Amino acid sequence: MPEGPSIVILRELVEELHLEEALVIDVIGNTAIDKDRMLNQRVIAFKSWGKHFLICFKDFALRIHFLMFGSYRINERKDSMIRLGLIFKNAELNFYTCSLKFIEGDLNVVYDWSADVMSDEWDAKAAMKKLKQKGQSLVCDVLLDQTIFSGVGNIIKNEVLYRIGVHPLNTVDDLPPAKLKALIKEARQYSFDFLEWKKAFVLKKHWLINTRKVCPLGHPVEKQYLGKTNRRTFFCNRCQKLFATIH
Q: CATH class for domain 113-235?
């Protein structure tokens, strides 16, 4: 599943095409949504919120979520079936294996931009307040809560917890204040590191724990499916502290 930084890369690539105010001259694909609604409409802007890519028109927006295996092509096509393709005079955007939904009205009403870890409007204090309301939730779950850390996905979750030395089976209430602050700070910092490394095609080289067999200190890495989210979690029992008994 593409995480927030990957969606930012998509947004930046599309913005380089200068399609704002461009007219959609054709809409293709096997989607069941009303494709004709976008035909002959002008794009107002492209936005990203967490894992959502948003194509904004005058009175509505198209939300694209890439699920687990979604992908896109710009000015080219894959051999597989296109879910949605938007054709402009001098460009085309093609999306595959994704979820599509129209968002009506003002996006500022629908989206809390301060929850997006990569947004200029990110609000760490608001994140702390939300975290404290999730006291009995496991940290491996709250990091994936898009209402708190929009854009954080499983890779970021694993790497952040290792960076700050926190075991994934701690609850929010288990963590001392300094670790809670570190969790919030690192969720944002690692997302920007992810973005930099992804652009340079060296992301996997920088993984400390995700998919590894041993941690950087040579300890064996555990792999389990943890929490309510039941997502694949890599962690080191020696480097990552469990502040309370296992839940």
A: mainly alpha
